[in-house]
Amino acid sequence: HETALAGSPEVVAALEALPAVARIQVYTRDRRLYDNRRTESGAWEHEPHAAEVLRSEQTRELTPVEAVAWLADYGAVFGAAHARRGYLSPRTASAYRRLQDDAARMIELAASAPSADVRALEEQQTHRRIALKVAVPEPPGIVGRIGQTLRRSLPPYRPAPSRDAPGNEPPSIGR
Description:
This protein is mostly helical. The protein is built from seven helices and two strands; from the N terminus they run ααββααααα. α2 (8-17) runs antiparallel to α3 (50-59), α4 runs antiparallel to α5 (93-110) and α5 runs antiparallel to α6 (118-135).
């Protein structure tokens, strides 16, 4: 979902430029970051900068405690996806692989949180990585794809008969 959110600041900036938009608010999960509304004359009460506020929040590094909470939420979501047939599939694999990369960064951030059991977090990460690889094996790299293509397009390999191999004559006893 981060791919979809990447353009959000630009969308918010475009909305803020429209005279028909009377109010813009930006929230995190737990609090309001920005609130601006138009006056009777149509001007913004405060200098408009919702896009900057949103971009700043999107790029803000999580605190160690927030990273621990993120990992707990991600673990629950991944567990639910793994338990439901078809949720870990070729269509969703790239998103889960990106989330796995995010989780690795979150473990680094969480390491300084007093409540973080880094060893347990790393074990959970390993289990998720293995579950994802089993559910949706990664496509082969370029060398693997070339090999697959060659195997499909070439006739089966049959070695040439050896010159030293006996012909159709029956075996002899040293004659």
